[in-house]
Each structure stands twice: as C-alpha cells, then as structure tokens.
Amino acid sequence: MSSPAIEALSVSELNRRTRQTLERDFGELWVEGELSNVSRPASGHIYFTLKDDRAQIRCALFRQRARFVGAPIRDGDQVKLRGRVSLFEPRGDYQLLVEAVQAAGLGELLAAYERLKQQLDSEGVFANARALPFPPRKLLILSSASGAAIRDVLTVLAARWPLVDVTLIPVPVQGAEAAPAMIRALALLNRQRRLDPQRDAILITRGGGSLEDLWAFNNEHLARAIFHSRLPVMSAVGHEVDTTLADFAADVRAPTPSAAAERLVPDQQALKGRLKEQQQRLTQGIARRLERESQQLDSLRARLRHPGEALSRQRQHLQGLQTRLLRAQQQNLAQQQARLEQLIRRLGGQDLKRRHAQAQQRLENAQSRLHQAMARRLSQERQRLQGLGRELNAVSPLAILGRGYAIVHNHQGEVIHRAQDTQPGQALKLRLGEGSLTVEVKRRYKR
C-alpha cells in the first residue's frame, strides 16, 4: 500500500513567506547596538553587523537612505537604528533594513532640546507667522556653499522661476561656529536692508543629519535672532522628520530644502500652462464675439436702406405735416373770427349805463348793511367786556382788600398764613386796599 503524497514548500517559497511574516509582524522599530564589519561596496549601499554581548544581526543601509545619514558609520560605534526586519531571500539571511542612524546616548540632548523648546515657546519666540513675498524679489540664502542643500535649492529655483535674484551667504551649518556665524549673518542682512530694500526674504537651510549634526539649529540665541529678524525667514533644516528650534522660530518652515524652494517661487511651467489656457479661452471668446457681431452686422445690413429712400419718405411726411398745419391754422383763424364777431354783437346789445347804475346801487346797499352790522357787533362786544370786568373784579384780591382785609408778608416777601410762622419782635409788611404798613409782632395768639 503506497503512502499519500506529501506537499512540500520550495525553499524560495519558504523564504518568501518568512520575509512577509517578518515585515508584517514587526513593522518599523528601533534597535540599539554596536557596529562591526562595516562594508561599502561600489553600489553605494552600506552593509554592517549590529551586535551586543549576546547576539548580532546583519544590516543593510541602501544608497538612497545612506546619503541622508550625517553621522559616520564606523566599526565600534554605539548607535540606534530605525528600520524594518526582513529576510534576504536568495541566501535566507535574516537582516535589518535600516532607514535612519542615530548615535546612542542622545537622551540628554533631547531633554535639553525639550526644555529649551518649552522656554522659548512660553516667551513667544515661536509666534512669528509673517507671510513671505511670493515670489521674493531678492532671496538671501544662509547655507553651506558646498552642501547638497544649496544645490537642491538652486536647481529647483532655476527650474521653477529663474527670474528670482538669489544671494548665497556661506555659513557653517554644523559645529560650534555654525550658530554664531548664522546670528552674525542675520544681523548684517537686517542692517543692510535699508541699503537694498529689494531684499525681502531669508532662507536658512541645510541637508539632513543626526541630532548632533543639526544641533547648531537648536541654539537659543539663533532662535531669538530669527524671531527678531525684520526680514521674514523660512527655515528648511534636515528632512521631514527633523524639527529644530530654528524651524519653530521662523515665519515659515519647509520640510526639506527642495520643498522650501518650491514654496518660495511659482512654477513657471504651471504658469505657462495657465497662460496658454487663458490665451486659448481668449482666442475662443474673440472668435465667438466676432461671429455674433458678424451675424448682427448682416442683420443690420439687411435692414439698411439707401439714404435717398429715407430722405424721400421724410420729405413726403414733411409735406403732409405742412399741409395739415396750414389747414389747421385756417380753421382756427375762422373759428376765432366767428367768436370775435359774436362777442361784438353781444356787447353791442348791452345797456352799459343802466348796468353801471344797478351796480352802484348794489354797492351802496352793501355799505349800509356793513355799517349797521359793525355797530351791532361793537355794542355786543362792549356789553360782554363789561360783564367780564364785573366778574373779574368780584374775584380780585384787591376787591377783598377793599372790604377791610390785609395781606401779611415777611421781609422775604413770603405770605404769612399762621401766627405760629412769626416771632415776637419780627417786622412784617401789611398790604391794604389802599397802601401798605410795616408792623412789629408783639404777641402771638392761637385764635
């Protein structure tokens, strides 16, 4: 009896599955150890071993990532590596594909960085947010004259907007002299701004590197110099994952030098494309407008008549109006003449003397009635006035005083109503029906 067939994986299939499992399960991670067996073949890749006192792992740093590593890769260095666990399928070698290299023992630097960052942030040093001119008339670049960053920036600027005027101020971008040199350059550029007002933007840039390589851009005095700069500043230090205090203090931060150049100037190709599109739209619009105007011109031409025809019609119309005007004048004159004759006949039949005498008599009668009415009205008003005078005299205080009463005033002119309002020896004034008296209070009585 034959045994059942056994399904077996090929070696390449096993290695492929193993690689997929490692890459899926571990993902990206950090590993710390010591470098050994560092090899740099002509391909530009770097191969080495990372080990500790009990184990080791093969590592590969490919060329496109190696050029971003600023720290030297040397045997015996203690480093932290960021990468992905994988498997080199042809040999079945378990390895670490390195993305970034960082010297070990950076904890103190990172702690100092965080403390200084919080201090400057609380002081408002990171509050700059001015917009840079777009595009700048004259761009001032602080960078290393021999670094890859300046080459990337100039290449992008030349391709996108060759009209920009660029001035490179070479400064060290690494080491103890870097921060003081950049501070002096910023101060000089701001002083020279009055001499050349066309200078209107500063770019501070360098390529990637380790935390130590970029430490000059975490200098407290450099961050303050950027904050106080009257010229707006863009910072593009390192790569996207690198963030320095200079980036926070600047008005604008770009993730890379190339990205900074792209943000500073427009893309001439895109502008040319939009210009071409606008030109096409303008050409099409002009063509459509010409078609409409041509059609309207044809319509007007069809409606247009010879000027002689129009003059002939106007002449006939004018003659008709002239005939109607003469006929209307004659009719109006005849009507006015007939009315005048009728009025003359009516006037001739009137007795003017008799009508004048009648009018004179009516006027005399009206005058007589007016005089009589005026006399009656005057008598009525006189009687009414006398009655009002009697009523007024009846309620007048003077009439009451005339019957023997008096009004008592103090020296302030106030009327005294009660005996209690006076004092013995007080001088009072009495107003009588005729004249007044000044008296002195001897005694007061309640009744």
UniProtKB/TrEMBL annotation:
- InterPro entries registered for this protein in UniProt: Exonuc_VII_L (IPR003753), Exonuc_VII_lsu_C (IPR020579), OB-fold_nuc-bd_dom (IPR025824)
Coiled-coil regions, chain positions: 311-383
Q: Which reaction is this enzyme known to catalyze?
A: Exonucleolytic cleavage in either 5'- to 3'- or 3'- to 5'-direction to yield nucleoside 5'-phosphates
Identify the residues that the record assigns to the Exonuclease VII large subunit C-terminal domain, covering every copy. 128-439
Q: What class of enzyme is it?
A: hydrolase
Q: Does the keyword NADP apply?
A: no
**Alphabetized GO MF terms:** exodeoxyribonuclease VII activity; nucleic acid binding
Write down the Gene3D superfamilies for this protein, in alphabetical order.
Answer: 2.40.50.1010
Question: What broad class describes the main subcellular location of this protein?
Answer: cytoplasm
EC number of the protein: 3.1.11.6
Which controlled-vocabulary keywords does the entry list? Coiled coil, Cytoplasm, Exonuclease, Hydrolase, Nuclease
Q: Where in the cell is it found?
A: Cytoplasm
GO terms for biological process, alphabetical? DNA catabolic process
Superkingdom field: Bacteria
Gene Ontology CC annotation, any one: exodeoxyribonuclease VII complex
Q: Where is the OB-fold nucleic acid binding domain?
A: 9-101
Matching NCBIfam families: xseA (TIGR00237)
Describe the protein's quaternary organization and the partners it interacts with.
Answer: Heterooligomer composed of large and small subunits.
What family does this chain come from, according to its entry? Belongs to the XseA family.
Q: Give the protein's biological function.
A: Bidirectionally degrades single-stranded DNA into large acid-insoluble oligonucleotides, which are then degraded further into small acid-soluble oligonucleotides.
Name-wise, this protein is: Exodeoxyribonuclease 7 large subunit
* Organism encoding this protein: Vreelandella rituensis
Q: What is the lineage of its organism?
A: Bacteria, Pseudomonadati, Pseudomonadota, Gammaproteobacteria, Oceanospirillales
The gene is xseA
